[in-house]
Specification:
Blueprint (H helix, E strand, L loop, with lengths): L3 H9 L3 H7 L1 E5 L1 H7 L5 E5 L6 H7 L9 E5 L15 E6 L4 H13 L4 E4 L9 H7 L7 E4 L2 H9 L10 E10 H14 L3 E6 L7 H4 L4 E4 L15 H12 L4
Parallel strand pairs: 4-5, 4-8, 5-6, 7-8, 7-9
Antiparallel strand pairs: 1-3, 2-3
Length: about 250
């Protein structure tokens, strides 16, 4: 049966400082757990076989516990642009703070075959329980990295001069119509040349230090063009629309 020390451990992992200290994270629900088991080392599994409903509720971060909770070992990897395949899109997240948005973006990236996401340190922790649940197991296939984005983008600019510069697209309100921009770039992106797509903070968009490295500012136009509408799209929705357009067959 589950011990009091194990219950305390699982509950503590709701907080980032304890996730960092132990190097663990929590997932709930059989489907999510089964997906994560394919990639992450399982440390502890809690279900009706070794815990009561009350104990599971005590450990759960959900209003309605799903009956199974797992503790996994975190994986932290460094990332090099040279690791990318020819047809890959690299997604960069600049200050995405809402865990639900981050989880949805990771799940969306998984759907569109984006296997690596590079995040600024201000972006939410990918091992936050709310993020993990929103990914629905996509963390097993999408690697999330954290780094100083301006410094990293600068290193790309000064990398191997013998290869064409990597186009860096960024979603900005003052950007050009994404459909017009990609109509010229799409064949190159899909068939031979990798690219980077940057999505910004929910309220402030892409930070100025990161904007300096964007070579192709883009925006998703509202419809009809001159109609009064919301100021902007939710960043997770905008990411889905953007990736769908990048993956559109030509």
């Amino acid at each position: 049966m589950i011990s009091k020390a194990q219950i305390k451990l699982v509950r503590s992992l709701q907080q980032k400082k304890f996730r960092d200290a132990y190097g663990y994270f929590v997932a709930e629900g059989d489907k999510c757990i089964d997906e994560l088991k394919k990639h992450f080392e399982l440390v502890l599994l809690v279900n009706s076989d070794n815990a009561t409903p009350v104990e599971i509720a005590q450990m759960s971060s959900m209003r309605t516990p799903q009956g199974s909770i797992a503790v996994f070992k975190q994986i932290h990897t460094s990332y090099s642009i040279s690791e990318r395949s020819e047809q890959s899109i690299l997604l960069c997240l600049d200050g995405i703070q809402d865990p639900g948005n981050l989880g949805t973006i990771i799940r969306t990236a998984d759907w569109f075959g984006v296997h690596d996401i590079v995040c600024s340190p201000e972006t939410a922790d990918c091992y936050n329980p709310k993020v993990v649940q929103a990914t629905m197991g996509a963390l097993a296939r999408v690697r999330v990295h954290y780094t100083d984005l301006p410094q990293w983008l600068s290193s790309l600019r000064h990398s191997d001069s013998s290869t064409p510069p990597i186009p860096i697209f960024g979603t900005l309100l003052e950007g050009k119509d994404i459909y017009e921009v990609l109509s010229g770039f799409q064949p190159c992106i899909v068939h031979c040349q990798p690219c980077i797509v940057v999505m910004g903070n929910e309220g402030n968009g892409i930070s100025q230090p990161v904007r300096e490295y964007i070579t192709h500012p883009i925006r998703i136009p509202s419809y009809p063009k001159d109609a009064e509408t919301s100021e902007s799209l939710n960043v997770a929705i905008a990411t889905a629309i953007t990736l769908a357009e990048f993956r559109r067959p030509k």
